[in-house]
Amino acid sequence: MYMYTVILVCRLILRCRQDARARFARLRSDVLVKIELLDNKHVQDIVWQLQRFVSGLVEFHRETYQLLKGNSLFPIEVDLSRSAFQYKSTSPVVQDDGTEEDDDELLQADEATEHEEGNLIPGLTH
C-alpha cells in the first residue's frame, strides 16, 4: 500500500510538471506573438515617419525651387584684384618684379547659358 501511494504521488508530480511545461510553452508562444506584433507596429511607425520626412523634403525642395526660379543671377561679372585668392602659406612668397599687368584686360570666357528648360547645368534635373 505504501508503494502504491508513492507511485500515485510520482504520477501526480509528473503530471504537474507536464501541465506546467504545457502552460509555459503556451504563455511563451503568446509572448512571442505579442513581441512580433509590437515589432511590426514599430516598423509601420518608422515607415510612416520616413514618408512624412520625405514628403516634407519634397515640399521644401519645391518651394525653394519656386523661390529661386525667378532670380536669374547669371552670368556674374566680378573684377577681383590679383591678391584676392592669395592666402597665408608656409612656402616662400614669390616677389613680383614690379611690372603690373593691366587689370582692365579680361580673359575670354564662355557665358553661362541656360540649357534644358532653364537648367544652368546640362543634365541636371529638378
TrEMBL record:
**A GO cellular component annotation in the UniProt record:** postsynaptic density
Query: Which top-rank group of organisms is this from?
Result: Eukaryota
The UniProt GO MF terms for this protein read:
phospholipid binding; protein domain specific binding; protein kinase C binding
Where the record annotates domain AH, the positions are 1-73
Q: Which InterPro entries match?
A: AH/BAR_dom_sf, AH_dom, Arfaptin_fam
Q: Name one Pfam family in it.
A: Arfaptin
GO biological process, any: intracellular protein transport
The protein depicted here goes by the name AH domain-containing protein
Q: Which organism is it from?
A: Timema shepardi (Walking stick)
